[in-house]
Amino acid sequence: MKFLPYENFTVQSSEPLTAVVRRLEAQIEAPRIRWSFSRNHPPYAGKLSENGFEVRRIIHYRNSFLPRIRGQFEASSGGTKVRIRMDLHPLIIAFLLFWCSLWYSVTIPVFLLILLNLIQGPFWQGLMFVVIPTVMLPAIYFSFRYEADRSRRKLTNIILGNSP
Q1: Structural domains in the chain (count)
Q2: Mean pLDDT of the chain
């Protein structure tokens, strides 16, 4: 398992760049703050240009680990290649690093002091503080994976012109 979740993949289309951009254009709206509950919108919000795109999937629930999706177009005589990278937003990464470093800088010394019997406390209590974040990291990873897999399928269908 990767420490920080990300995914790189490439989609090869036999169609020219303009056709791929046109299909993506129909599925991406300009970024905006959403206060309404309308579900009548494209699946993605972000920026699209002739060189690439940066989008996020529009969801109607909370998920801080929603992938940030960036793609680059490469036109060739045989069609268009789209290189896509999905990763966490840098602020989420910064928060996770700050939280984990703060948590472990306090709990590991306490755990070691309990382990060496220098302070009183049951062993499982000290172990619990070390294990909780270790269990949370896979939860974060699988939350990202769930959203990344959905976006990968959807983007591949859009780029190749398949019905979703």
Answers
A1: 1
A2: 86
